[in-house]
Amino acid sequence: MTDGPEASTGPRTVGRPARTIFFGSGSFAVPTLEALVAAPEVHLVAAVGAPDRLAGRRGVPMSVPAVTRARSLGLTVLQPKQLRAPEAIESVVALRPDLGILADYGRIVPAAILDAVPRGILNVHPSLLPRHRGAAPIPAAILAGDTEAGVTLIRMDAGVDTGPVVASCRWPLAGTETAPELEHRAAAEGAALLADTLGAWLHGRIEPHPQDEAGATVTRPLRREDGRLDPNRPVEALERQVRALQSWPGSWLETVVGRLVVWRAEAAPGFEGGDPTPGRFGRFGLHAVDGQLALREVQPAGGRRMTWDELVRGRPAIVGSDVVAGG
């Protein structure tokens, strides 16, 4: 479902494709980049992405997904270490962009660039703003138990995801989605929303409206320690965590058989026999404060992914043992 635009006297086209610069790094950005390449309303003059990083023992340079795709499309690619650096700002401004599009870039765009783009920089953000602003909107939606998800197209301002809303779309959540699944859906929906909106925006037919600050929430970057499963929390919260943090940092427990990564789990409220002590492993998984987290797929340190039953057969000592605190 798409929230329709209002009439506007905003940015107008000048009868030629708008010179457009793209900012994006992660895999979420790739469908948006591809939509821009296919859009007749724009001429993509460059793609700006995060610098290559060194990977593996040999330190082989590795590009982020959006940069890899941009190169395969034959686009000019810029990878400044700091976009706020004077030389980086100059390189962007020198391209004389009419419009900017940003998706999953991961860096702050300085005011000097925002002010240099007459039709603005539009941000494809994977949440229903103002809910879940910031760095981790997709995990946040799952962790919160949201019943719907969406993508919002905003005109960027100096704040973090605070700009006026240009368009949005939404869809219901089943309550079973993992973060990779939701990101894949949001990336496709965001690219389609942008493609449907570009013409109206460039012809001045959309009046962006301010976000409702009363509904604003802010997410922060996820840390490795966020993946630790705490058995003193409700089982529904633990099950959501397993789905929400599947991409990064994963969900894990320290056990008598070493660190155990949990890939799939189900919430089973209540107890049916056995010792209900929170943090103790039973025949079907982990006891929490209000029930059991039934572990469906796990991965022991140095091992492969396997079912809980397979793990118990090979390492039966885990049943009846407790989670190791502070490991």
What top-tier CATH class of the largest domain fits best?
A: Alpha Beta
Q: How many strands in all?
A: 17
Mean pLDDT: 93
Task: Describe the sheet with the most strands.
Answer: 8 strands, mixed
What is the number of domains? Answer: 2
Based on Cα principal axes, name the global outline: elongated
Radius of gyration (Å): 23 Å
Uncertain residue segments: 4-10
Give the percentage of residues in beta strands.
25-35%
Q: And the CATH topology of the largest domain?
A: Rossmann fold
Strand order of the largest sheet: 1-11-10-8-7-2-3-6
Outline the structure in words.
- The protein is of the alpha/beta class and 327 residues long.
- It folds into 2 domains: 2-218, Rossmann fold; 224-318, Formyl transferase, C-terminal domain (Methionyl-tRNA Fmet Formyltransferase, Chain A, domain 2, Roll).
- The chain has 8 helices and 17 strands.
- The protein has helices spanning 30-38, 65-72, 86-93, 111-114, 137-143, 179-202, 235-244, 308-314; strands at residues 2-3, 18-24, 42-48, 53-55, 60-62, 77-78, 99-103, 121-125, 133-134, 148-155, 165-172, 218-219, 251-255, 258-269, 285-288, 291-300, 306-307.
- The strands form 4 sheets. Strands 1-11-10-8-7-2-3-6 form an 8-stranded mixed beta sheet, with helices on one face. Strands 13, 14, 15, 16 and 17 form a 5-stranded antiparallel beta sheet that branches. It has a two-stranded antiparallel sheet with strand order 4-5.
- β16 (291-300) and β17 (306-307) form a beta hairpin.
- α5 runs antiparallel to α7.
- The radius of gyration is 23 Å and the shape is elongated.
- Mean pLDDT is 93; it is low at 4-10.
